[in-house]
Every structure is written in C-alpha cells, then in structure tokens.
Design a protein that fits this description.
By secondary structure, this protein is of the alpha+beta class. Helices cover 61% and strands 14% of the residues. The longest helix is centred in the first third of the chain and has 19 residues.
Length: 182
C-alpha cells in the first residue's frame, strides 16, 4: 500500500517536471533503462536504501555514476529519493512513471498468456484487434503458461479476455452440471 502511494506521489512529480521541460521521452528512456538494470541486479536499490550507509556516500555515488550519464533533473530526482529515504521504492516509482508516460502517449499495455508461443502473424493480428478495440497503440507482453492447454488469456488494462481452452472447459462443466437428466 505504501509503495503505491509513494510511487504515485513521486512519479507524478517526475512526470510534471519532465513534461514542463520537454524531457518526457528522455526520462522514459533513461528510467526504463535504469529499471532494467535494477531488476537484473537489485544491489543498487539495496545500497541506496541501506540505513548503514551514510547519506553523503550514497549521494557521492549517484553523482559519480550518473552525473555524466543522466539529465541533471533525473539525477536530482534520484537524490531527492535518497534524501527522503524513498530509494527502496525506486522500481515502483519508475513503473508508475512509465504508465503515466504511456497513457500520455496513447499506449496501452496488454499481456497475452498462451500455452505455446504465438507466431508472428498471430501476434500481429492480436495487436491489430486490440488496437481497434481500444483505439490506442498496444504494447504487447507475451507469457507462456502450458496449463492453459490452448487458446489465450489477454489482459488489457484492467480487463481480462479469457479465450483459453481451460476456461472453456470450466464453463462447459458448469453448464453440464445444471442439466437435469431423467
């Protein structure tokens, strides 16, 4: 709960600041890259969040590592997170910021879970249909779950479209259980 509140507060501040300066695209790119690094190796978040390490050490580290690689606004944003003892929520903040930027650009994330990988053609048709349905550009994430047996489950925003064989069998079982046999 607190992670969501912190993420919303700080991502909104970053979104507004970057937007006013015309840096949304650059912020999106730099923070998405940073999130990829943090998910691969969470040591940076642990370091920045550690109460055993002096704040000045953390800030010096940020300036040395990111000073030449990041826009000054973004570096200052990281410094604020450290000073406010919110660095542990950095990935959550970046996720919330990414969603804000994507919403601003008319992009919707969709997750397609299938039993086997989709072919390029199937994926293209799915993206086209979802784009037509939502009127937005679709950013598709793919997941494989052999338990589905066949078909797919698509999550678009907060809507679930379940076209899996497993779901179909469950529905069929429900229907058959209501039939009275004499």
């Amino acid at each position: 709960m607190i992670a969501q509140q912190v993420a919303k507060k700080y991502s909104t501040a970053l979104f507004l600041s970057a937007g006013r300066r015309g840096l949304l695209d650059e912020a999106y790119t730099q923070f998405t890259d940073l999130k990829t690094v943090l998910r691969t190796d969470p040591a940076l978040v642990k370091f920045l969040s550690s109460p055993k390490i002096a704040e000045e050490q953390k800030l010096d580290f940020l300036r040395r590592v990111f000073g030449e690689r990041m826009q000054r606004l973004f570096l200052e944003f990281l410094i604020v997170l450290v000073r406010k003892r919110r660095a542990m929520y950095l990935v959550h903040v970046i996720d919330a910021f990414d969603l804000m930027v994507e919403r601003h650009k008319g992009i919707v994330r969709a997750t397609a879970t299938t039993a086997v990988p989709l072919s390029g053609d199937e994926e293209e048709r799915l993206v086209d249909r979802l784009s037509t349905k939502t009127g937005k550009k679709i950013e598709l994430e793919r997941k494989i779950d052999p338990r589905l047996i066949g078909g797919m489950v698509v999550l678009v925003g907060d809507e679930i479209i379940d076209g899996s064989v497993k779901y179909g069998l469950v529905k069929l079982e429900e229907q058959l259980s209501h039939i009275k046999v004499h």
